[in-house]
Fold:
Amino acid sequence: MRRLALSLAALLLALPLAACGGGKGKSSTKTLTVVVNAPFSQTPYVGDSIAHGVELAVADANGRGGVTLNGVTYRLRVEKLDNRLSPAQAVRNVRRAVREHAVSIVDEGTGVDASWRIARAAGIPLCIVYQGGVGLVDPVGRPNVFRIAPTDHGIAFRFAEYLIPKGLKIALLHDDSGYGIEGAKALDDAFSYNPRSVAKRLTLPSSASDLAPQIVQARRAEATALLVWASAPTLAKTIIAARSSGWRVPIYAAPSAEDPLVRQELSDNPDWLNGLTFGSGRMTAEAGPGPFLNFVQRYENEFGPDLVGVKDPRGRPIAQPPDYAMYPFDYMNLLVQALYAPSSGKQLNLVAGLDQVTVHGVNGDERGFNEKNHEGVVDDDVYFASFHGMTFAPVKDDPLSATLPVIEQRR
Amino acid sequence: MPTRLAVAVAALALAATASAATPPRYVVALPSPTSPLSALPPLQGGRLPIRVYRGQLTSDERVLVGVDQRGTPRRLEVEQRLLAHGLGDYYLVVPAPVTDVEPTADSESRPGLQQSAIIWQGFSPRRRLLGAHAVLDLRRSASALPLRLHVSTRVDGRPVTGGGRLDGRLDFSLVATDATGATFRGTIGATNPLEVARALDQIRAAQLAGRPTPAATVGIRSHVRQIALRVRAQFMVSGRIDFVGPLLRGLKVEGATVVNGRRGTSLRFRALLGIERPTLRITAAGAAAGVAAPKIDLRATPLTPAQILQPPGASSWAAAVHARRALRDGEALLARAFGLLAGAGRTHQYATLILSPDPQNRATASYRFTTVRGMRPSVRPPSRGGSGIGTLGGIAIGLAAALGLAGLAVLWAHS
Structure:
């Protein structure tokens, strides 16, 4: 049946090469448009990180002379469309990408439950590079959807693996955003094998200005740790509510903890951030920090450092490592490889081609998809880091994290 | 006492011969008992293997061959379990003619699939089991299997192939033929048998201890000559043939033992297949009522190099040379050593039907041939062309493969 699905996908998604570009017919150089569908206005850190990663890879490809297929040279072009964190807007953006014959869509993840079909009908691969929701990616059901970002499933199971042996009674908190709801599903699944580790499950209203009532509930449930899966503003409010009440409970969090907004919100009480531990995709592999640091240097040369807006205890400004830019960068390199993958006649089948390519990723590890898995970040890539003095470093009490170097964040 | 004296005298004589010998005219190297003799196995996937992992990997494979009622392979699956020993990242590309892959129930990671390769990527926290249940492309894989089965079940001369039951005179035969033959070419000449024996003992000791095989050489004190040896892999083969239903009484059986049970009559067998006995033949004949096609379950396990290098009737080859006059012809013993070592190398190839990413490390395998319920012999052999399968053909093949895979899994689980 798997073969059948692939055969149908190949038939449906075969993309005429001539239709890929938006260029003028008689020119020997055409363009291939890549659409970035991301929340540029609502969470600029996420939107800009994604766009910068794509732009950097596109600059590399164009710097090498573009992509030459069947004697025609194509230059890559990036088009940024703001999804405003609205599924409806995200779908409109994907329709526009189809109208403009985009060769691929690099997507933050909002609205993908609806937009993937539109992209599929046009034979366009869509790669999610931020959201980790469990149901978003399915190589059989959604063959044109790929993802390079830590999955909620991976982060939740790694948290269970990391926290349960500590003997903690954990309050699982999530907000009512799509991000929080998807995270809660993954946490429920991961902790279902050890229900006695869970002291309480609570939903945090994103619109609430004060989360003290929820924190009191968690405390009354005799929780000895909080695991918070919420958007950056809600996470910051949760930390403030706990610490301002004098509760020094250990707090663990989803990748949103590294969003600069959390540190900005806590800049008046930097000590409250100390010890906050989050799970995310590792920036380095066994090869060492070299590949990622080279990427940081190129990124900062091009766009400048992503300054968080806070300083360390000695007054030095802090920059956010461009970890969420490396995912779209890696995807673009895979896409370029897939463009060169063997195809039948003049038909390009990028969706099938992406299953067969692998590149050296920014973190020094191999990055790629395959016929069974459209996830470019495996669960084993999830590491844990904790904050001290407004910077974060890998923890030492997890086998994977303990092997990772500290990435310098002071500028 | 006389025997001990004789052995002691012989030992002294051999030692004297060795010490007084002139320097050898030639030195020949003995082959490693883990060196392959041919390209297959392991199966090639058409791309290069990749191993990015600092630790060690051991491999264990369970090869499952679904055969029809004539013994022809109809489906081929491999469970490959790689055990990672050591802390660190891993990225492995295992080339194989694989069409589908799923994790085994005990796997601690999920395998990926690219064209003709199984992909592994992750982090080993000192120990990690990577288990892949792979379905192989039969047309590209069947030739690498170590055994060929030929099964015939007839009642009154009519073949029994379907699910129906027949009455009359039963004539059953199972012929399992070792298909691993290969040719090894070596150089021999007059030599000291103790020198050969000691080399064999060193190699065997290394194998038993799990150490790398030492380079072993033997001096030749005469003219040399080339020999071509036919070698085969050695397998311990065992299994059962079940005639489910009424008991078959008064059967004349060769090559197996008859066991009558509540569910019917079984023929049990066990034999060592290899260079000395390349074919196992089991026959059963007699009057029968209500006979259906039997279920065959045959397991073949390759011997280890240490088992193949077991000295005859002694704790070491050196002791055997002292004890047995027949081994004191140095040239003959050298030829025998070549045959044993090359045969061990050929056998070791079958420890990995699909490649182990760490070929220098320990690898084991077992092969299981089972008749698959409902799998009748094909009327026409499958085309070797491979192209031109339409969508509907793809659907039919895909459905058949899915159903067959489930059938084999069920059969295996219940056996």
Notes: Residues 44-63 of chain A form the longest helix (20 residues). Confidence is low (pLDDT under 50) at residues 1-27 of chain A. Chain A touches chain B through 26 residues (CB under 8 Å). The longest strand of chain A covers residues 72-82.
